Amino acid sequence: MKTLGIDIGTTSISLVLCELEERRVLKAWTLRNDTFLTSPKIWEKIQDPGRIMTIVSQAIEEIQREVPDIGYIGITGQMHGILYVNQAGEAISPLYTWQDGTGDQPYREGKSYAEHLNQLLGAKFATGFGGVTLYAHARRGEIPREAVSFCTIGDYLGMQLTRRKSPLMDITNAASLGFYDNEKQGFRRKDIEVAGLDYEFFPRVSRERKALGRTKDGIPVGLAIGDNQASFMGALSDRENSVLVNIGTGSQISFLVDSCEEIPGMEIRPFAKDQYLAVHSGLCGGRAYAILDAFIRQLLTYFGVEASKEDVYQQMEQMARAKSPKAGGLIVKPFFSGTRENAEIRGEITGLDLTNFMPEDLVQGMIMGIIDELYDRYKDTKTAGAGKLQALVGSGNGIRCNPVMQKMISERFGLPLIIPDNKEEAASGVAFEVM
């Protein structure tokens, strides 16, 4: 059977056509997600859900003209972000992405909305989590009056394809919003009500993986799965013994655990009914490397030199390759937008001396800083299950497009790095995970 997987990412939208029985990717398409909207509120990071639906629906129509016998559609997409829907199941707000900073805005008593919510509930919600964005909007009176619920962009695509009027969430997406109970596999009514929110406003959660409905052409459509879990499904053949390092716009390290017990420094996310992912997410990841690229290109303009992003990336890799990393080199902490635990922390460069304030040292230091944010959490969790892992798998364009980063990751973790042939791990993960 041929299946289609769709991944709505922050900057790109990927579709893969797969042969289910052979678990083989037949063809892949990557489209630009150019739907960001300009907001007068500089902290908002929002996209146009209507434009996203147009891009996806047109792509599906073109693929169906070429391949009319698609038997299943799987969906994934950027987690944490939310949009509001009305009674007819239509979006009546932008998509507030995982990068949205509304939760970091000042609320009262010198605390942000996220800090106040965490103090109120004794929780560890991060800005960008849909529940924090919802809480801030509620306090600010910014929830649309016609809104009856909210959902992720993946859930909304499922609603549009199946003509469903209310969202139904898989546990992976539900957990990404906050207010979620891993043990009970549902939203925490008490916490929601203590926060002054309406429990009935929250979407229904499905504890079972099942088809959400069918398209107008009768194709079954699966519940949308969180992109982190979907990438894990698509990248790893040996899920039990592998650790996944993903570096794209952000960065993540993930491995399976059998319990939802807390692990210091890690977030425990549902994976399947009785399995969980231990995850640490960096807010910058590959974006930190892009910031360095922008710095170099800006510097070049002062000398009358115009260089493309591709040219500078290539030169940065050559600079990093030309000099072996050494002890006592630059230490770069690329916390440009804070961390999930501390939105106020910022990046720093230390270890400067008379010999290492050179471009190649800065490039190497930036790469190692991106890696170390993930490795430091990994090494601290070996007693919680990471110690038994035997395979290191890399995914995301930040890794795929940078051989120097690949080598440095392998050396830091002390394991050979495996990079799957399939580049669209999340989209293929949901294409293979037929419900």
Structural notes for this entry:
This protein is α+β, with helices and mostly antiparallel strands and 435 residues long. It has 2 domains: 2-223, Nucleotidyltransferase, domain 5 (2-Layer Sandwich); 237-420, 2-Layer Sandwich (Nucleotidyltransferase, domain 5). Helix content is 33%, strand content 25%. The chain has 13 helices and 26 strands. Strands 21-22-20-19-25-26 form a 6-stranded mixed beta sheet, with helices on both faces. Helix 8 (286-301) runs antiparallel to helix 10 (359-379), helix 9 packs across helix 10 and helix 10 (359-379) packs across helix 12. The two termini are 13 Å apart.
How many beta strands in the DSSP annotation? 26
Estimate percent helicity: 25-40%
Largest sheet: 6 strands, mixed
Counting helices, strands and paired strands, the structural category is alpha+beta
Distance linking N and C termini: 13 Å
Within CATH, the superfamily of the largest domain carries the name ATPase, nucleotide binding domain
Q: Regarding CATH, which class of the largest domain?
A: Alpha Beta
Number of domains: 2
How would you sum up the global shape? globular
**Which strand order does the major sheet show?**
21-22-20-19-25-26
Number of helices: 13
Q: What CATH architecture label of the largest domain applies?
A: 2-Layer Sandwich
Beta-strand percentage range: 15-25%
Low-confidence stretches: none
Work out the radius of gyration: 22 Å
- The CATH topology of the largest domain comes to Nucleotidyltransferase, domain 5
What is the average per-residue confidence, as pLDDT, rounded to a whole number? 90
